[in-house]
Amino acid sequence: MATTTEVTMTKNNSKPSTQPEVQGGPVWDWAAGHGPVTGALSATTGMFAVATTGAATAMPPGWALAVGAAGAIGHTAAGIRLRNAGRTIAARAASWLVGAGWTTWAMTHGPLTWTALGSLAAIGVGMGTATRSTNLYEEAREEEAIAAEQRAVAAELSAERRTIAAEWVDRIQRVCGITVRVLAVEQWPTGTGFTLDAELPGGTTYDQIAARAAALSADAHLPHGCTAVAGPGVHQGRTLIDVSTVNALETETPYPTDYAPLSLLTGIPWGYRSNAEQILTYLREQCALVVGPTGSGKTNMVHVILAGFARATDVLTFVIDLNAGSAGLSWVLPALQHQPAPGERPLRPGIDWLAGTVEEAHTMLDAVLRIGHQRKISYQALMAREDTDLLPIGPSIPQIMLVIDEGAEILTSMDKAMKKLAAKILEVIRMLRAMGVRTVLTALGSTGSVLGNLMIRREAKVRVALTGGEKEGMDLSKLFPGTRGLKVDQAPYKGAGFMGTPESAAALFKCWRILPSQIREIVAATSERHPVLDAVSATAAGDAYARRWDADRIAWMHQPQPAAPVSELDEGGEGRRGLNLSALRDEREDGPEPEQGPVSEVDRLADAFMREIDEHFGTAPEPTRRPERERPERPGLNLSALRDNDGDDSPAPQGGAGPEWLADAIAAIADAGSAGMKPSAVADHVGRSRQAVREALKAAAERGELVYRDNGPHSVYVHPDHA
Ligand SMILES: Nc1ncnc2c1ncn2[C@@H]1O[C@H](COP(=O)(O)OP(=O)(O)OP(=O)(O)O)[C@@H](O)[C@H]1O
């Protein structure tokens, strides 16, 4: 009767055999399952064998009946445990009983008669048919059970969605006085919130809801850092309301380690929204402005921006960082210090040009302007052929992204030298959009004077405000005009803030954290990927560009970075930091060779680096003559790197208002926010006599550059932005 067991277990017994192969005979697989036909065949042959053997050996017929009854009971119990359908259990029990009945009858009347054989055949066919039918029925039942389970989950989900929809319809009605109809609720895959797709009542616009974002968030008891932001829907009568329920901005997320190639045309990621969606910037025609007070994560963000440009195959990045070049250095030094193994190509820096001084910045901006003008002339035919008024940017004609750290401060500086620089930056912004030169400016504060500039307002629509918990001087309404409901305290985390682009409305965002080790990895990973400046541009840029990695131009990069204290600088003159490169050059060329063993080693390395770069990558045409020595410029005033670079208390030789250190003093006072600074603290900061500082600050207040807050011995000077 063992074979009948196999018939009834067909469905659950279909696993492939794991029995080891037996050598020397037919393989008898006891674990193999049966289909309805083989099962019935196996059962009937088994019954026939038992009946003939039993008849021949005079076995008591009751035994077969007893075994059949036991099988029927066992299978009924097993069927119940497996939750088989009643009809399946009945069919299997009946198979056992009919089989046992026939065997008993055949043992009594003889199995070798036509009647016995005929009835056995009929039983076999019946068993096969019944098994097939119960199997089909069980499969159908199983499928139906799965479908029912899915329907239950869906019903539960849609019940949850319906609850959310009803709750938000009520809330919007209560807080905004607008009755919307929610058409869909989509849960974010990250599990950190949901989006409502709502239909607005006639004559209502989504910004009426957007303006009440903070009130909606409070009404919904959302955790800190979570928002309910209404944005445009598929048409003007619909709105999408993003509701974040988990604060994704709180956690520090490392820069994604997939350093895959990017293109300026398909967007460069700068960070992510509360729903973990990446924010792409499209900078073919747009400039960008990143505002972040000290400690907000601005330097980190500049590195993330440079990482994106380094990964792009159609971008060359020029960096101006008068703060001792600190933002750009991390992208140059890994290449400069790289010791290629034999046969290995030297690394190219992650940026294509770094200006750490005012002179170098002028050289760079002049070259960029020449490039732009020459591109306009030389690429006329190409643009006509391509039927476009925008230069077709790509790996063969790369876009130049000019990243200027604290660039907004240069633009608003009152200093004469800075004004000259500012004029060139503005010319680049105004003239070279079509020719593939765009800028990213950073600013310490969103001062009215930065955004008061029409050019910046018009050209820099990609805007970022890193708040990092800082409230002073953070005027989001100036940076994101027309967007209401943004509050600085929604993003009190470093690297978090608000970001808006023409494609993505201003809302909360977070920048990835990028570590120096990742910068080194990206420099290595992208070294072979950077485009080469097109010949037209390289010729226009001339020696200034071709010799940008010359030893004398990059010698400062090897100087110890922390600025020397004022006293040292004043005493020796030797201690002047790497900012004034021309000073280094002059000493070597005009006077006796100074005792600078390490510098000559540096020169040697730098020369080798320059040779290798040109040899392997041909980044620039070989210059035919030494560049004219440039007239040293007075260093600028309003940047921290230049703070200690002054000479004395006398007025600036250019006739600028106040002594040279005044801009530094004003910057420090601005940094102090609404608390302001006492003249004595300013004197300590700039290392000047109190008397001289008092007079200069007073004069600045009279010119309107500072505000004097009279409070007896606690009187302070406050920057107009914070007054
Ligand atoms: N995206 C980020 N995620 C998490 N933490 C960050 C992020 N960005 C910056 N931080 C933290 O904030 C600190 C300051 O960052 P960063 O130096 O970039 O700020 P900053 O605004 O440039 O300040 P400073 O002007 O003083 O250099 C970092 O050391 C890091 O601990």
UniProtKB/TrEMBL annotation:
SUPFAM superfamilies: P-loop containing nucleoside triphosphate hydrolases. Residues 1-21 have a biased composition (Polar residues). InterPro entries: FtsK_dom, P-loop_NTPase. Keywords: ATP-binding, Nucleotide-binding. The keyword NAD does not apply. Residues 614-634 have a biased composition (Basic and acidic residues). The keyword rRNA processing does not apply. Residues 276-475 form the FtsK domain. Residues 1-23, 614-662 are annotated as: Disordered. ATP binds at G292, P293, T294, G295, S296, G297, K298, T299. This is FtsK domain-containing protein. It comes from Streptomyces coacervatus.
